[in-house]
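Usage

Read records sequentially. Each one opens with the input sequence:
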Amino acid sequence: METNERQPMTGKLHTASAVDQMAADWVARAELRTLTSEEEVELEVWLGRDPRHLGAYAKARAVAVHCEEAAMLRVAGGDPGPSTRHERADEAVSSVMSRRRVLVAGGGGLAASLAGGVFVWMNRETRVSTLRGEISLLPLPDGSVATLSTDTRIALDFSGARRMVHVLGGQVFFQVAQSLASPFVVSVDDHHIAGGKSQFSVSLDMGAASVLVVEGFVDVQRPQGWPGADRAVRVAASQKLDDRRDFAQPRLEQISHSTIDRLLAWRQGQIAFDGQTLTEAVKQYGRFSDVRIMVDQDVAEQRISGLFSTTDPLGFARSVATVLGLQVYPVPGGLRIAQK
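and closes with the structure output:
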């Protein structure tokens, strides 16, 4: 990995600790309240004064986000107790789970791992991805933060004043930092999502693009050649937009805070269901786990609700079976949920 050598700067305000402290102060100020226009200009000037300022700011933003989400990967779903069948199921799962990784960076470790790399990999069209079962917190060079869900691929374009992320698959939650220089743009399935300081998620699954806004707003433009591509649709806080090629127009709906929490539970290593069929639930869970879970046809339409850990497929299967009065059986390569 190549790094650029820089001459040490002199002066008390340019020491590494002073720069980090200044960056932390700016992040704390922005978290507590909206910056005034004068402060935004002052921040832009400070960030542009030295590349190390931008790196320190991105690092401080990432640490702040991590602290807000300290409950990442809490385990949900219990073990109802040992039995011969359960012990056999444990053995069937163990070989698969041993190959599974969950990436969660935290606190000082996150800062240390990113401090030297922020400016190295942020080149034009740099690609970042997560494997199945991984969740990754990624600070961007403008101070924004992207949280990548499992099995997600993105391409980054931060050349010059440009701030653009291409979501190639999966789901990403963005916490966008304010910038006077340029809007923050996300491209997904040829849709363009543009906005300023905001929090929103973007997903691409089975040819359908979705945008969920938690804070602020974004403008979504359909791909060229689609009906209505000449005008953008504004998606505000607590709204969700779904779109695909066979829709006459994007579907925009107001959603509740509880629905937002359910849809974004993956950021804490959890998955929430609210009346989905067992088949649908197992399919969604499969995005997070290498353990194959099969459902017998005669129980496939039973519906479940609840919050489950994405890191414990055996616990998920057992909990679902317990609630529905079913049984988990070990099978080659995975688990099977069926009648007792």
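Summary fields computed downstream for this record:
- The longest strand covers residues 164-176.
- Residues 51-68 form the longest helix (18 residues).
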